[in-house]
User: Fold these one by one.
Assistant:
Number 1:
Amino acid sequence: MPIALITGGSSGIGTAFADQLAVEGHDLVLVARGRDQLEKAAARHRARHGVAVEPLVADLAEPVGRAAVEARLADPAAPVDVLVNNAGVEIRDEFAEAALPALQREIDVNITAVLRLTHAALPGMIERGRGSVITVSSFSGFLPPRGSSYGATKAWAIAFTDTIAASLQGTGVRMTALTPGYVRTNLVAEIHPDAAFRQGFLIMDAGRAVARCLADNRRGKVVSAPGIVYRMVSGFIELPRRTLRLGARVAGRGRTQHTIAGKNAVAGEPRAAGH
Ligand SMILES: NC(=O)c1ccc[n+]([C@@H]2O[C@H](COP(=O)([O-])OP(=O)(O)OC[C@H]3O[C@@H](n4cnc5c(N)ncnc54)[C@H](OP(=O)(O)O)[C@@H]3O)[C@@H](O)[C@H]2O)c1
């Protein structure tokens, strides 16, 4: 059975990824900090879908937690076919007033963990000629809300996915950034406790967002924007980037084809900057 590793796999959008990837026939590795919730989620998936589930307790804000997940992703004995970078932190205090350690944790989970886990997963995927890396960004990566640096971390996730996906052309490995607006999860219940908002037309179920993302990943789409309103707006915002990408391909100057470290590149040698 193929294996999918999902960070933040014990709740919300992560649960929807776990459900749908299990239905597609994947065994699961679920990562989160809370052991009890992880064990409960694992038992539910085993009972409902008959798949094998490994709960992996790790705090992605901490180097030791990230190292445990990196080691699991790089394990050739049980290769991971799908990595879902879903766990995320949102600091809602105004930037200038927010506590610096909290802002650093946001960077550590939303950026450092995504970069390091993707880096651990890709070499094996490239060698096997197949695999998917999905990173849960946010619509706020296009249009950051007033407040703090959360939107900037989600903008990084879109730019990172776009850049690395371009270098993976022809390898059989696909990368997609999911950019949902509001999704009915615990996170949104905390931000918007009023029930009327949670029933409004701008908020969607996690299952719908995830189904769209998995379909987009199969089609090779780099950005997956679920929901017609969000899709139209982000499609418009994305137009210059898409035009540039197409122009580069047409001109035959696509970004450098990915090479497995050490095969065609001198390890550690910086490449000349692009533009
Ligand atoms: N809900 C929305 O409207 C929305 C919209 C756009 C984007 N997003 C993004 O979607 C992703 C998932 O959000 P959600 O709404 O599904 O949140 P959620 O229901 O609160 O679930 C968050 C999951 O991440 C885990 N997690 C949190 N911090 C972690 C850490 N430091 N290390 C490891 N695991 C950690 C949590 O488990 P533990 O607490 O046990 O660790 C939980 O499993 C996030 O990246 C978020 O930014 C959400």
Number 2:
Amino acid sequence: MLDIRDRGHGPNTYPPSKGVPQMPEFSFNNAVVSYAAQILGNKIKGEEAQSATALDVPLVTRTNRYNAAFRAAKDAIGSSHHANWNDNPSVRGFGVFYWHNNPKSKRLAEMYLAEYKREFPDLPIWGTGLFASMPGSWTNFHMTRVPNYPAVLVEWGFMSSPQDLRLLMSDDYRRRCGKVAAKVTCAWYGIPFVEGGKVVPIKPAQTIQPVVDKAPPAVGQEVVHLPPAASSWRLYPTNKAPVKGNEMAFLNPAKFGGLSYTIIARPQANVVTIQTSQFGKGNIFVGPGTGATFSSNQTSPAKPLPKKRFVKLPARSGGVNNTSWALYHLNKPPRRSPASNIKLELNPHKFGGLEYEVLGNHSDFVNVVKIKSAQAGEGWIYVGKETGAKFETR
Ligand SMILES: [Zn+2]
């Protein structure tokens, strides 16, 4: 028995993509996988190629590892967990994908759908809830196509729907999604599932700092630092009690290598008011054990500038002038047919080569990255080795 559990993306995928301002998709995926793992414990071993803290692991690396694990444990099953997105905010609901001609994957997908309906009889299902991944279509996902083990890709709801987003951000929903996943795994292996008592709230990995007892400096002169080990830190409205459930957003120190804010008020013990650029003013809990540290404004450590990745499209490759390098629409598959997938033909040859900042990797297509063209805005480009595209981090 082996439960292959995939967190979908790494913690560094929002920004630029994979999330909405209120919630990086990873925070949801991570919570579901962690809850499922917690419930299953040692009863059923797990395999996780994308950890809760490591930078995004390329899909190929992940499936190589999962397929190797499957060679060793021939009865392994796998699931990749996601939150969905649609341009239309009224699209809602749960859906699960399986590779179209793999009956075991289909069976696993059906079990997910049935268990989801049992747990959430009142919540909407997206379409029929079951999607066969087909080659040459938008459903051709790496995580359903490449696995040799029975595999599903689960979309637990739409970040683009305000109602779904509220669910996706709630600890209760995340916990119950983890329970659904654990129940399906138990059912697959014919192991009785014992309800209740096993799931405890997940705290982000935190470093415990010694508490230095000193008189608090004057307001506005002190800076609070949230450590990079924490991937989710509740931000509360200033007019509500800073308790779980009242949060208006989650800060993600991990994504930025830690976050620092000037303290603008101390409304109560271990709670400070800060001004965030994304969510405005709010309160955060910074008690002992959270890993928050303090310094005076004057000595606040400079944050290192995050490195950026760039891709260079050569003027010529393989003896051919690169006069048309397709820039694909963000919401369409990165392939030349139909032609309406293409937003613009970039012309590296005309400019002696072109360079763009890499804004993200496509989650479903290998060697496809997001860039922003000055002329046409954001889109996908294909940068497989044979194209001669070169990457640089600086
Ligand atoms: Zn995803």
